Amino acid sequence: MQAVCVFAGSAPGNNPEYTHQAIQLGNVLAKSKVRLIYGGSRLGLMGEIANEVLSLNGSVTGIMPRGLLRGENVHQELTAFVEVESMHERKAMMNEMADGFIALPGGLGTLEELFEVLCWSQIGIHQKPIGLLNVNGYYDPLIELIKHSVEQGFAHSSSENLLIVANDAHTLFQMMSAYQPERPEAKWKHHPTGKLDG
């Protein structure tokens, strides 16, 4: 992997381990000479990982829609900063630039970005690794929800394999580096009636 897109909270969270693992991930990316692509903020976990990569002379690209430039407090020391018109353009550019994705703990924005790349993987738009840095079990409820959706017949069992999950940055990066894409399963299956079930 030459570039990884990281989704993360613009707040630090209530547990110092969130910040610690964000810094550890930045350390791993910089020392592995992997470019960080992220949302461009200097706040929260987003700022922590960017600061760590930059402190080790690594490369960081921030991408931010014009409407968020004031509210998200743009990081002023990035290697590159790209201003786009919309969230859709931001996410499309992230997908184009990145060789993989990692979600750190975060709020609704982080979850939305994570689920979009998961959906894109499910339907075959990309075959890039998607990592979940499950610090202190933060994402345990989400993992259980995905399992529940499979058990209730709303998702294919392969959905559970779309995520690469680890509790620490070093292990997660090693697992993602070894990732081999599988043939995507068909999302839609036929009912006996001949209708499609999405």
Automatic annotation (TrEMBL):
Keywords: Cytokinin biosynthesis, Hydrolase. The keyword NAD does not apply. It is an enzyme of class 3 (hydrolase). The keyword Hydrolase applies. Its EC number is 3.2.2.n1. InterPro entries: LOG, LOG_fam. Transmembrane segments: none annotated. It holds the Pfam family Lysine_decarbox. Belongs to the LOG family. PANTHER family: LOG FAMILY PROTEIN YJL055W. This is Cytokinin riboside 5'-monophosphate phosphoribohydrolase. It comes from Paenibacillus shirakamiensis.
